[in-house]
Amino acid sequence: MTYLFNQPEAFVNEMIQGFAAAHRNHILPVDGGVIRCHKAKPGQVVVVIGGGSGHYPAFGGLVGQGLAHGAAMGNVFASPSAHQICNVALAANTGGGIVFCYGNYAGDVLNFNQAQERLQAQGIDVRAVVVTDDIAAAPPAERHLRRGIAGTLPVFKAAGAAADAGESLDEVCRIATEANARVRTLGVAFSGCTLPGARQPLFDVSHGKMAVGMGIHGEPGLHQMDALDADGLAEMLFDKLMQDIPPVIDHPEGARVGAILNSLGSVAQEELYVVYRRVDQLLRGRGLVIVEPVVDRVITSFDMAGVSLTLFWLNDELEHYWLAPADTPAFKRSIVSGPLDDPAGHTALIQPIARQHVTTGSRDSQKAAAVILEALESAMYIIDTQREELGRLDAVAGDGDHGIGMQRGLTAAVDAARKVRAAQAGAGTLLTAAGDAWAACAGGTSGALWGVMLCSLGHVLGDTVMPDTATVATGVATALSEVKQRGKAQPGDKTLVDVLQPFAAALDQAVARGISVAVAWKDAADVAHDAAQKTRDLLPRIGRARPHAEKSIGTPDPGAVSLALVIGSVGEVIRRHCA
Amino acid sequence: MTYLFNQPEAFVNEMIQGFAAAHRNHILPVDGGVIRCHKAKPGQVVVVIGGGSGHYPAFGGLVGQGLAHGAAMGNVFASPSAHQICNVALAANTGGGIVFCYGNYAGDVLNFNQAQERLQAQGIDVRAVVVTDDIAAAPPAERHLRRGIAGTLPVFKAAGAAADAGESLDEVCRIATEANARVRTLGVAFSGCTLPGARQPLFDVSHGKMAVGMGIHGEPGLHQMDALDADGLAEMLFDKLMQDIPPVIDHPEGARVGAILNSLGSVAQEELYVVYRRVDQLLRGRGLVIVEPVVDRVITSFDMAGVSLTLFWLNDELEHYWLAPADTPAFKRSIVSGPLDDPAGHTALIQPIARQHVTTGSRDSQKAAAVILEALESAMYIIDTQREELGRLDAVAGDGDHGIGMQRGLTAAVDAARKVRAAQAGAGTLLTAAGDAWAACAGGTSGALWGVMLCSLGHVLGDTVMPDTATVATGVATALSEVKQRGKAQPGDKTLVDVLQPFAAALDQAVARGISVAVAWKDAADVAHDAAQKTRDLLPRIGRARPHAEKSIGTPDPGAVSLALVIGSVGEVIRRHCA
Questions:
Q1: pLDDT confidence of residue B346
Q2: Minimal Cα–Cα distance from A543 to chain B, Å?
Q3: Where is each DhaL domain found (chains A, B) (predicted)?
Q4: Calculated CA dihedral for residues A231, A233, A235, A236, nearest 10 degrees
């Protein structure tokens, strides 16, 4: 939906005012749209684009050096009037003639044609190049009936860059026409869009479906189908575009293409990149050479969720203009640096974190290491089985990824522990390796704290002695102290400290009682279990990244629960070995 | 929601791969994040940023010349691990020391601190500047506890630009620290966000409400309140930021500020500009000088709907770095051109469409003009009363703005007609003036076609004769022919042609029958009324911008209905005058 507006009728005017205010050094508002602040040279050809509003950056956002000289900006989804177009054109004109460039829509054709007639009647030479890149809108034989969507960008850019290079009116038209002949786009939509002040979406797509070929005003496309995943969508768009290669291209292999992956509004940049990953693979797989792709919002439809893929089949001349610098509010291209001379030289610079040389542990410590490895494996097993429950607990107040993070960390920890165990590591080295791997692979706060706990314990246990109750208690106490210091959490903050502290205290008391590690751990594990359950009653400290902090009352902290689970499963393993 | 992904667990890795593929000439992926392709000079300070993913362009999108040298990219909303950070830092390092720069979140602090210790242990000088710009996160006295949000951009930029300028490690840290001391942000959220693969939003905001100060992971902020309109929101954010001016600023009047209006995801660029319009007014109203504002997505939270406003209180040094060129995938700043020498010189170039000299009409034609003006006023009245119904009809298959467009066009037409009528225009001049004004102010297809109809009729009626039935019939026939030619619509396409054609035919028959204009018009108006109703049974031609074309069966075309309404009301006026 549209969240921010004042009077809906004033939306476009206020938008243009804000747009001009934000780009004061580049854009000048005129009645009917905007022009560049820095006017073209006298006698130069100027390129005037335009269309309805609601498609930002189309059209005002594309005015600036190397692109358009002016944009007529109509009302929401409505063509600018011939009067507006004339005004913008006259403001941009420096006497060298004007090229109108716009997408093929009935209202735009009507109004741009009228404007063209009026200006011609004033003795100004005005030409028009209409963009028709949407392959869903008509079959190849009727290309002239197709709509203009994201393919407008390369056509506008070719025209604007050629005009700024001082080309003649004939040449600018020829180049823009050639660009249009070589550009193809296909889009899909997952949702409609809701215009400012409207209570209902202007159009809609059923949940879980996608409309293939739907236009940027919701024009019906080819068909609806079940929504594909990112890779599937990339493949579908690629396949269909490869069935509509411009006739001038003899063999796609070796062809050079500009690619545009466009978000129609609500699809996030991260999602575009996930799709682009597959697009890149597919284009390269077919032997195409991708030239400076654009992955961005290029032509939108308010908050519509959807994407389109454009292929711009280059020749030398068009590649030159595609790569030419541009500086507009929404599209900037610096002088493109060539590919890196020696990218491998870079990667070679990356020094992996120095692998610790595995110190061979004493026989006793190797024995302990074997038990610890088994304990880690056992912990991995219990966390695997509890992963979804931990995610559920985490989702109450957080982002629900605690179970996945624990699993990722433990898997890496076990893997590292197995490796150093095979190299005869003692308990200390094994725990340190496991802790480092856990932190490295799990990331986040929890990963870092688990890394700290295992490493602290490892440093105290060392690689020589068979750890007794006192050593273990000291190790856990050290872990607690490190976790509190680094994690800045105190008891009562509803974190794993609320389990670790009573667990450490229980082990400490066990030392005084002179009992075995197995028994001490078992008793302390019971304490830990209860402590984890008690975190139900706590409220997370304000300011932490827990959106629904208050909702978590009544639910134990997932970090506390998973620590208690690990402690419990470790206790089982110790008991088995000491029995 | 998130629409496009494959396996949710693979989302971040695939995103980074696609990101790197899209920016091959600028970005190099390394284990843990990305670095610049073009490495810093040997011995130069490098700036390494980072944080969880899901905030694009933060953080990978901000790597490039004039900004960061590398970014550690963690999992979704999770800090990168110390291992990842070390990897990125080592890959970017050229021996001149490293500045870590990141937002103040527990997980990031923990992992960046660990990475710092590890690198220092390897003899690398590493410093850290933690960004704390979110005024909602803690009171001014506890600034160090505040979170880092959109204010990260100016701090990163100050650090990166200073490093690229060859400043020492001490200097880069001092400059970044000073930047952080001078940046303040406040945000609001209207909705939560849904992570890839999740069925529920991670957090949410009640419909019609906004959460003031909510963090980019949904951290609770100050309070919830009824959502404000665009101006109200700008005022609220401005007021609160002006209550938290950095202590170093003595008087806000005359101060120079960089401003950032950031969309957290789903708020469209058009909406940002509507809000920015008011921000600009407010800042200028308080005597502040805005320096190159940024109105864009700067730090997001997937598809969260929300915005934040940042004020960056500049001194000379920071202004220099704020304006310095930058070239990253998501943030590019060209060498900023000064304000235009003579902006007025531009506006002066705009030649308004030459006002037609008003030809005085004959006495007969002036009489006819009086009737036509009254007819237009009557049409305006009927359209005013039917505006909502026309909007409702239009919303069935289109964007629901037909009533508003008709109202806008008729108001302008009546206004223009009154002016030329006062200057003794004849019927032809009056109709032409009304048609031009209608088309200019209403825009879109409908505005253009109404302009064509009135102008065609005007040309035939001329400024000398009292129009008889034959003249009127010829005028309407001309209008029909022009509309068909320019609008490219045929009878049966469910447009106003489906009314205009039978109306013209009925007038034509009336000529043969030799009846008066009043009677002829009345009969033809009945035909037009019926024809408008019959458009219920038609299907709009495929390819037009009618999203729900098929749904419109059973509903008459709004353009046909409004034409019939105008014809009807004009008939009443003619009859009154001829009776």
A1: 44
A2: 7
A3: 370-572
A4: 160
Of A425, A443, A424, A434, nearest to A377 (Cα)? A434
Catalytic residues of B: 217
Whole-number Å distance between alpha carbons of B132 and B222: 16
Task: List own/partner pairs for B535-541 with CB under 8 A and 24 or more apart.
Answer: B535/B494, B535/B498, B535/B499, B535/B560, B535/B561, B538/B492, B538/B493, B538/B494, B538/B498, B539/B494, B540/B397, B540/B493, B540/B494, B540/B495, B541/B489, B541/B493, B541/B494
DSSP B110: H
DSSP state of A145: G
Contacts of B281 (CB under 8 A, 6+ apart): none
CB atoms within 10 A of CB B177: 16
Helices (H), ranges, A243-314: 269-285
Q: Which of B457, B437, B445 is nearest to B486 (CA)?
A: B445
What are the structure tokens assigned to B240, written together?
Answer: 């609160």
Q: List helix spans (H) across A312-362.
A: 316-323, 343-349
The reply to whether residue B76 touches residue A347, judged by beta carbons under 8 angstroms, is no
Tell whether pTM > 0.90: yes
Provide the shortest C-alpha distance from residue B528 to chain A (in Å): 24
Contacts of A545 in chain B (CB under 8 A): 77, 105-107, 215, 217-219
Tens digit of each residue's pLDDT (9 = 90 or more) over A253-294: 999 999 999 999 999 999 999 999 999 999 999 999 999 999
Secondary structure element (H or E) that encloses residue A289, with its range: strand A289-290
CB atoms B4 and A275 under 8 Å? yes
Given a cut of 70, whether residue B337 has pLDDT beyond it is no
Cβ contacts (< 8 Å) between B352 and chain A: which residues? 31, 87
Contact residues on chain A for B308, CB-CB shorter than 8 A? none
Beta bridge partners of A103: A131
Amino acid present at B216: I
3-state helix, strand, coil in chain B (%, to 5): 50, 15, 35
CB contact under 8 A, B444 and A78: yes
Instruction: Using CA coordinates, name the residue in chain A closest to B113.
Output: A486
> Which pLDDT band, with edges at 50, 70 and 90, does B342 fall under?
very low
For residue B127, list its beta bridge partners.
Answer: B99
* CA distance, residue A134 to nearest chain B CA (Å): 11
Model pLDDT, residue A547: 64
Residue appearing with tokens 């992992």: B111
User: Residue B544 to residues A214, A283, A300, B403, B511: CA-CA distances in angstroms?
Assistant: 12, 32, 18, 19, 36
- Say whether B100 sits in a helix, a strand or coil: strand
Catalytic residue (one of A217, A346, A529, A577): A217
- Residue A48's φ and ψ, nearest 5 degrees, are -115, 125
Closest CA to A314 of A259, A245, A249, A257: A257
Average pLDDT over residues A122-144: 95
**Residues of A whose CB is below 8 A from B9:** 404
Q: Degrees (nearest 5) of the Cα angle B97, B100, B106?
A: 150
Q: Do B332 and A337 touch (CB under 8 A)?
A: no
Share of chain A above pLDDT 70, in %: 95
Straight-line distance from the first to the last Cα atom of chain B, in angstroms, rounded to the nearest whole number? 65
What distance in Å separates residue A37's CA from the closest CA in chain B?
A: 7
Identity at A182, one-letter amino acid code: R
**Nearest-Cα residue of chain A relative to residue B300:** A268
Domains identified in chain B and CATH numbers = 8-333 (3.40.50.10440), 363-578 (1.25.40.340)
Burial class of residue A264 in the structure, from the number of CB atoms within 10 Å of its CB (0-12 exposed, 13-18 middle, 19+ buried):
buried
A548 is catalytic: no
